[in-house]
Design a protein that fits this description.
By secondary structure, this protein is α/β, with parallel strands linked by helices. The longest helix is centred in the middle third of the chain and has 14 residues. It is elongated and about 50 Å long.
């Protein structure tokens, strides 16, 4: 048995949430978690990308569209996880958006509110 085969199944029965799980590092992590036996919820702001990620993964995944910077969206997300699975074992906080500005021009508003404004 190879090292990779020994790792498969180490997340059996676990429920995971991966923010930004529709692309990049989040999607790669979601795939790995599913391959290791977890049921995975992914969240992101763009429905088309979420749908494509679910289709690509094929099993043991639920996509929930929303913005993690919005408390109402988070409440809806956690209510769905509780209703579907009754628990959450793993949180992979991956979502992020960056706004760039030259040094010396970064305002407090950009620092505090840049993500929510996107």
């Amino acid at each position: 048995m190879t090292t990779n085969e020994k790792q498969l199944g180490k997340l059996d029965g676990k429920v995971a949430l991966i923010t930004g799980g529709n692309s990049g590092i989040g999607l790669a992590t979601a795939k790995r978690f599913v391959n290791e036996g977890a049921y995975v919820f992914i969240t992101g702001r763009r429905k088309a990308e979420l749908d494509a990620a679910v289709k690509e993964m094929g099993k043991n995944v639920t996509a929930v569209q929303g913005d993690v910077a919005n408390l109402d969206h988070l409440d809806r997300l956690f209510a769905q996880i509780k209703k579907q699975k009754g628990k959450l074992d793993i949180l992979f906080a991956n979502a992020g958006i960056a706004k760039y500005a030259p040094l010396g021009t970064i305002t407090e508003e950009l620092f505090d509110g840049g993500i929510a404004q996107v």
